[in-house]
Amino acid sequence: MHNYAAGAKVCLNYLTHLLNLLNLTDLKILRTVWLLHDFVVNKVNDYYPNWDKQIKNQIISKANEVIKQDKWLDLIKNTLTTNDTQQFQLAANLYTQYGFDAWKARFEHQKNYHSDQWPYLLLSDSLPRIKQVIQLANQQYDFAKIATGPALIHEYETEIDTHNLLDLILQELNHFPGVGEDLILIGLNSPVIQNRNIALNTIEAWDRSFWSERIKIAIQELAIIEPDDKIKHRIITLLI
Fold first, then answer.
1. What is the signed CA dihedral for 184, 164, 190, 110, rounded to 10 degrees?
2. Distance CA 99, CA 149 (A)
3. How far apart are CA 207 and CA 48, in angstroms?
4. N or C, fewer C-beta in 10 Å, the chain?
5. Taking every pair of C-alpha atoms in the chain, what is the biggest distance, in angstroms?
């Protein structure tokens, strides 16, 4: 679209057409308008042909006319209760785009429909929220079953599985010393190398005053049985 000779004119005509549609209710189209708006505001600069300041301002103005129509927020809020994960994700992203916090809606969707909202739920600096996420994750996944002892497994079975979710949680625990100790211990005892490394990342990020006796003992035991030489060296260095 940057170098498409008629790109700016096509975008302007597209938005003009949308503004003439009285019954426009498709959130996918709204997403497209947001993308177009952000594209022109943030990416199109003066070096691209046929995207002069005047037409850029016209595109932004018309995009804002579409975006600011009152109907959209009601449509988005209604869609946030759907059991269709794809539609929910679209609505949640748009809700955030309008400056609202979609965390509670994402939590309820994950709780009710066992979807894949974990990366969004974990993007929080709120300790109560992180504790809620950990509690929900423990309800929906059996983390204990993967604590079968260290091995030399490098890859996850699937893109989103128990090992992967454990990593996602452990990465965020860096910012919450003392929280999620049971999951850290499971990570140290996982056969997947990355789980153990990320569990150690979390422990290293915490001040030693937050290391419980259980964590200290787990590290010491892992130093003895760890099959990966790099991790073993890392643990020995950590214990010095």
1. 60
2. 44
3. 51
4. C
5. 71
Cα separation, 6 vs 2, whole angstroms: 10
pLDDT digits (tens, 9 = 90+) for 19-70: 999 899 999 999 999 999 999 999 887 777 788 889 999 999 999 999 999 9
Predicted local distance difference test score (pLDDT) of residue 72: 97
The angle at the Cα of 109, spanning 77 to 29, to the nearest 5 degrees, equals 45
Structure tokens at 90: 């679209």
Residue 36, classed as helix, strand or coil, is: helix
DSSP state of 157: S
Query: Which residues does residue 192 pair with via DSSP β-bridges, in sequence order?
Result: 153
Give the torsion through C-alpha atoms of 15, 77, 86, 18, to 10 deg: -10
Please provide the DSSP assignment of 160-197 as one string.
Answer: SSHHHHHHHHHHHGGGSTTS-HHHHHHHHT-SBHHHHH
Is residue 101 within 8 A of residue 90, CB to CB? The reply is no
Q: What's the Cα-to-Cα distance from 205 to each of 120, 132, 176, 200, rounded to whole Å?
A: 22, 22, 9, 8
For the chain, percent helix, then strand, then coil, each to nearest 5?
A: 65, 0, 30
DSSP 112-154: HH--S-HHHHT----HHHHHHHHHHHHHH--GGGG-S----B-
